[in-house]
Amino acid sequence: MPSPQQPRAVFAMDPVHLPLLFPPPLMERLRKAADIDTALVVRDFAEPATADILATAEVLVTGWGCPRLDAGLLTAAPRLRTVLHAAGSVRSLVGEALWQRKITVSSAVTGNALPVAEYTLAMILLAGKDTFTHRERFRATHAQPTQAETAHIGNVGRRIGVIGASRVGRRLLELLRPFDFTVLLHDPYVSPAEADALGARLLPLDDLLGTSDIVTLHAPDIPETYRMLDAGRLALIKDGGVLINTSRGALIAPDALTDELVSGRLHAVLDVTEPEPLPASSPLYRLPNVFLTPHIAGSLGNELERLGRIVVEELERLATDMPLMHEVRQTDLTRVA
Hints:
Blueprint: E1 8-12, H1 18-21, H2 24-33, E2 35-42, H3 51-56, E3 59-62, H4 71-76, E4 82-85, H5 96-100, E5 104-107, H6 109-128, H7 131-141, H8 147-150, E6 159-163, H9 167-176, E7 182-186, H10 192-197, E8 201-202, H11 205-211, E9 214-217, H12 231-234, E10 242-245, H13 254-263, E11 267-270, E12 290-292, H14 304-319, E13 327-328
Helix pairs in contact: 2-14, 6-9
């Protein structure tokens, strides 16, 4: 029988994610922290079969595939007081009705930031060695490169421009510290002193673009950042520069980016695009100066367990009347993803 302290919880997500988010040891901890039917995963809040369970639910454990938490859900779940999101951004999940009900929201976005930062670091190091160009050349020629062909490569003193001191951006800045890079940062909400503490030099966006060897995007997808890298700003990046995007495709003007890459002037590592996925006719699939991946930088496979662990720890705090560690407030969504 559940203890009086255990909140009544319900899973709401695509059930395909559940085993990876909550492998057996984590699921056992979850059962101890909450009164939850681990075999029940809600996909549609309007389904009559879910009415009884939603009527008593105090906590929703959500994830990818969860329906939007709208007024209909709040009517069906009058006792709901907490949403624990076992994924990244809650921007598309929560709405005004939820905030008006003063329901507490927590997200595992901090855990999701780690693999994105790791992916980005890997791509920075590979790009500094011009790995992608040399792989294509080696496949075509089977010949060792000449000294002239490798004279420009290496990671000593590379200028890395980080756009956005988001959770991913900050984690990346930590990961960059051991390397022999000059790190630049643009973020309108960060002071020069804070940037210095993060190990970076704060610059206006145009100055960062014009002086970086590698530019990496970690700003949120909000109205202020829509198409922030338009044709004019892309033109500021030096010839042969590398652009990495693991944030959102909407931050870059797609036609302008395609023009720059087709011309061969820039290189790019793109884990996100607009649209996503690109149409089969897109030249970016075939360009040797583009390394394109299908939105894999975020948590996948065994990395999902980290997100589940964050949710379980939040549930354990709820059960012992401790404050949540990863609460998301409505005001946060004006500045973060």
